[in-house]
């Protein structure tokens, strides 16, 4: 989860825009079944050993995933851990959180430096109550109706919270796949590219999509960093186009 996730992400890019009609994925690599299987096993094996442990990744619930994803927007995971723990201790259920005032939410979010997000969180919690019987919906379309939830967060909740077979795409994952497989989009705001989302859904393994998504999030955040990627430690290094081309790092 990265949540399950474990890295900074732009809230605006990850949450606002809707996919446009045109498909601008510029390069969508074709992976043979054999290469795909090797790709899956390399990532999953790496994740078993090196996957990061966060409280929202242990026995994830839709509520816990939602709260962690909300906090992880533009905030590092290590900063989120104590705030997440305090939040679920104070509000162990969605109903209890929904009864909190904006002021209470603001106080608990204060260590993240994102107090301006408290009213958004309050609106989201209210919407779960009014439209979804105080439950977090399973479907992406319903999740997208909730304030503050965009395509990425909706998929993260559906995958990590409900076990749905859905891919994730964020800047770290995109960078990883651009380097390793040559994936490319003409869109600066990659999450608006439906071709990329289709590609991502197409490379999911038949099972273990949760672990696969977490592996890509963790590998993108810790190994395939934007500066100084640690290729010697990377499970994809044998067939990474970027590394094999001897690109300047
Ligand atoms: S080998 Fe290097 S550039 Fe390629 S995916 Fe791994 S860390 Fe990234």
How does the SSE layout of this entry go?
Elements: H1 11-15, E1 25-27, H2 33-50, H3 62-72, H4 77-90, H5 94-98, H6 102-109, H7 118-131, H8 140-143, H9 151-162, H10 171-181, E2 184-185, H11 194-202, H12 209-222, H13 241-244
Antiparallel strand pairs: 1-2
Head-to-tail CA distance between termini: 28 Å
Number of strands: 2
CATH top level of the largest domain is Mainly Alpha
Largest sheet: 2 strands, antiparallel
How are strands sequenced across the largest beta sheet? 1-2
Overall form: elongated
Task: Give Rg in angstroms.
Answer: 18 Å
Averaged pLDDT: 88
**Secondary-structure element string:** HEHHHHHHHHHEHHH
User: What's the number of structural domains?
Assistant: 2
Q: What is the fourth-level CATH superfamily of the largest domain?
A: Hypothetical protein, domain 2
Characterize the structure shown:
By secondary structure, this protein is an all-alpha fold. The chain has 13 helices and 2 strands, in the order αβαααααααααβααα. Strands 1-2 form a two-stranded antiparallel ribbon. Residues 6-22 have low confidence and may be disordered. Residues 176, 179-180, 223-224, 229-231, 234, 236-237, 240, 242-243 line the site of iron/sulfur cluster.
